[in-house]
Design goal:
By secondary structure, this protein is an all-alpha fold. 71% of the residues lie in helices and 0% in strands. Helix 2 runs antiparallel to helix 3, helix 4 packs antiparallel against helix 5 and helix 4 crosses helix 6.
């Protein structure tokens, strides 16, 4: 499949893969694409994992929580990525969770889905949720 190329060193190839991935939903169910993107989380290439999670966040934004086949199994995998050393991977994982929070609106439910997390990861996520909530309150 073409998804492992989403972490290629060349920006032009990453853009092509991003474009194909976005067009993929017009011929294939978004939930199936989400499942394929989950396979990217097993990659050794951190850029591939980050790109996959960025696309997951886009799918959640465009199609809602229905694209996630089983939140109880998916969110612990994403929570594991929040503990990564690489800041890009960490931020991408947080963005997926924040996008889900914007759809669901219940942080306690998301924590239930995420499972046990380190206090550092939980504090980082809480900080981002507070920032987003503040900006939504202003508008």
């Amino acid at each position: 499949m073409f998804l492992p190329k989403s972490g290629d060193n060349k920006e032009s190839i990453r853009n092509i893969v991003r474009s194909i991935t976005r067009q993929f939903c017009s011929v294939y169910p978004a939930s199936k694409l989400f499942t394929f993107l989950l396979a990217n989380l097993n990659s050794k290439n951190s850029r591939t994992r980050a790109e996959g999670m960025d696309e997951m966040a886009n799918l959640i934004q465009r199609h809602g929580m229905n694209v996630i086949p089983s939140p109880q199994r998916v969110f612990p995998l994403i929570a594991k990525q929040m503990g990564e050393r690489d800041a890009t991977v960490r931020n991408s994982a947080i963005n997926v969770v924040l996008q889900a929070y914007l759809i669901v609106g219940d942080l306690d439910l998301l924590y239930k889905y995420l499972g046990p997390m380190s206090t550092k990861d939980k504090a980082l996520l809480d900080e981002k949720v507070i920032i987003i909530s503040f900006f939504f309150f202003l508008y």
